[in-house]
Amino acid sequence: MTPDLALAELLAGNQRFAQGQPTAANPIEERTKHVAGQAPVAAVIRCADSRVAPEIVFDQPLGNLFVCGVAGNIPTPEIVESIEYAVAHLGTTLIVVMGHSNCGAVTAALTSEVVDGLFAQVALAPTPDLDDCIAHNAEQGISTLLNRSVMIEEAVKNGLVQIVAGVQDIATGNFELVAQTQLN
Hints:
Elements: H1 3-18, H2 28-32, E1 42-46, H3 54-57, E2 65-69, H4 77-90, E3 94-100, H5 104-111, H6 130-148, H7 150-157, E4 162-168, E5 175-180
Parallel strand pairs: 1-2, 1-3, 3-4
Antiparallel strand pairs: 4-5
């Protein structure tokens, strides 16, 4: 599947979710067709927040998303290696860096005097506005991913993979794109 088609599928699913009309179901047949392997249409780097479930937010059936999560949706070395696996071995062509409103990790990085460990990796916007920082952190996830993975950077340069960043509004359910790589 092309990156554009994968993105269109996710955005259409998000629209269904936000309107309260999801269609994804996971009957026994859906589970059994994935026993031999997986071929996800997208890889998602998400926050570990319990309110952010990409399979539900994008209204996708079992097997469609390769999801990796950590507080603040930071592309840590382990997350990057997992995404590399999805691209190299599963044929994933779309990577989504998924932030969300009211992110506790971004709030902690923004308001704490002592920030270390994972929270030190949260990319804050030049302004102290929480929503700006959440969007900026998701957008910076693209740069971090490209800087930490030569393989993914080459796949993007060769037009094989696209990376997008966006923010899910927890109240409305809507996912809004804030940045994306340009395919050659």
